[in-house]
Amino acid sequence: MKGTARLIVLNIVLLIVLVGGAGLGYYFYNQSINYLSTNNAQITGEQIPVTSTSAGKLTDWSGEMGRKYSSGERIGTVLTSTGTVDITAPKAGTIVQQSAVVSTVVSPGSPLAYLYDLDKLWVNANVKETELNDVKVGMAVDVYVDAFPGTTLTGRVEKLGLATAGTFSLMPASNTSGNYTKVTQVIPVTVSLEGNRGLGIVPGMSVTARIHK
Q1: For residue range 123-158, what is the model confidence (pLDDT) as tens digits?
Q2: Half-sphere exposure of residue 179: CA atoms within 13 angstroms, side-chain side
Q3: Range(s) of the chain covered by CATH 2.40.50.100
Q4: What is the pTM of this model?
Q5: What fold is seen in the domain 35-45+119-212?
């Protein structure tokens, strides 16, 4: 009887393992067939530099981190040799970084602050070149933000990059040995977001993008 009981238990365990393995195998198969995922992705948006149009002394600066400014709103004043020049926001946005110091000399075109429109952010997802053929404009995308686990944002593939992510790198890879080693490149894919569900997402946050094939 004991031998029979052991055999039954072993058969049950074996059946559970087989069913579990089959289920796991189906899950990964389903994921590979229906989805394309990459964690080489982040939240981004249009970076708007705030600059002076003239060289001079920064006499006034009202910029505040986290404050929203409308397009054309005055943020600072520069005293030049011919008078004063206002520094204004080129576009509507929120100051996310600033380096302006009152009473210092500023140069024309040098950024004193950076604005982002935090209501118009998107995802930049790097997809392997070997998988790019499976990605089409308009495909639905699930976006998982690392900072907010358990919450899923939705979006759409808006644009496919026309060059690899490393093409315009400041330090492109070089080969001094004369032997070329092929490395899989990634192509940037722009994903528009369909709202942020009230999450405080900001540029630079890491995400995982799952594209529906």
Answers
A1: 999 999 999 999 999 999 999 999 999 999 999 999
A2: 2
A3: 48-116
A4: 0.79
A5: Elongation Factor Tu (Ef-tu); domain 3 (2.40.30)
